[in-house]
Amino acid sequence: MESAELRRSYDELLAEVEAGGFGEPPPGQLSAEQIIAHLAANDELLSEATEAVLAGSPFAYYDLETIHHPQLDALVAECGGLDGLATLLRATSQKLCALVDRLGPAADTPVDTHLREGFDLLVDEPLPWSRTLDLHTRVHLPKHLAQLRMLRPHPQPA
User: DSSP class of residue 64?
Assistant: First the structure.
């Protein structure tokens, strides 16, 4: 797993967050604040799993795709909105990247992984931890980046 690629994905996502200007989500979709809260909470789970891998401890990773809106809303309120959430995401992503930098050969450690990305990806089996991190970098982060971009109002043609 290339931590440089993971850092680039977060840099792109954080630049989008800092650009702001997000509108209301379509019914049933997450707001920009909820998306960022989801990513920060998920970073914490990824960091815990990475710490367990580094310590040689067994660990199971469950993606937070199904986290309930009240938990996200509580995190949004705790952070005070978009700016606080961006600060939190910057901290959680930096911690995760620093842990990934330390993995070395431990990256091949199988971790019982349970994640779902809509209908596109369903994993319910042990995967090398580097593979799970790669899915996070190449599928999960870009999916939420696209969601954020879709929340920005598009100018209507004249």
Answer: G
> Mean pLDDT in the chain?
88
Q: Supply 22's token pair.
A: 């997000």
What's residue 3's pLDDT? 84
Contact at 8 Å (CB) between 108 and 130? yes
The residues pairing with 116 across neighbouring beta strands, listed in sequence order, are 122
Helix residue ranges, H only, 20-140: 32-55, 69-79, 82-102, 129-135
Residues in the chain predicted with pLDDT less than 50, given as ranges, are: none
Q: From the CA atom positions of the chain, what is the Rg in Å?
A: 16
> Which pLDDT value is given to residue 70?
81
Return d(Cα 68, Cα 65) in angstroms, integer. Answer: 9
- Give 67-101 pLDDT, tens digit per residue: 567 888 888 999 998 999 999 999 999 999 999 99
CA distance 133 to 146: 19
- Which helix (H) or strand (E) segment holds residue 127: the answer is strand 121-128
Distance CA 31, CA 37 (A): 10
Residues 6+ apart with CB under 8 A from 38: 30, 64, 67, 72, 144
